[in-house]
Specification:
By secondary structure, the chain is mostly helical. Helices cover 33% and strands 0% of the residues. The protein is built from four helices and no strands. The structure holds zinc ion.
Length: 85
Amino acid sequence: MALPTRRKRKTVFRRRKVCRFCVDSSLRVDYKDVNTLRHFITERGKIIPRRISGNCARHQRQITTEIKRARHLALIPYTATLPQD
Ligand SMILES: [Zn+2]
């Protein structure tokens, strides 16, 4: 019979993430605002998930839409550009 292994779990202190768009109502999600949107994409152009970005569902959804819109207008890359040889 296996002994119940009880590991001491270290309490990891994570900064409580709060949706920055909810905090600052003057911040707007806008496809033209590439500098803001860039916070929510990786260097490879992927959208950062909500659990990492800390946005609320409503704003994450807006960001996703705006990023896709910006991509369509080529303001943000779909993928990272490969180095050309
Ligand atoms: Zn929010």
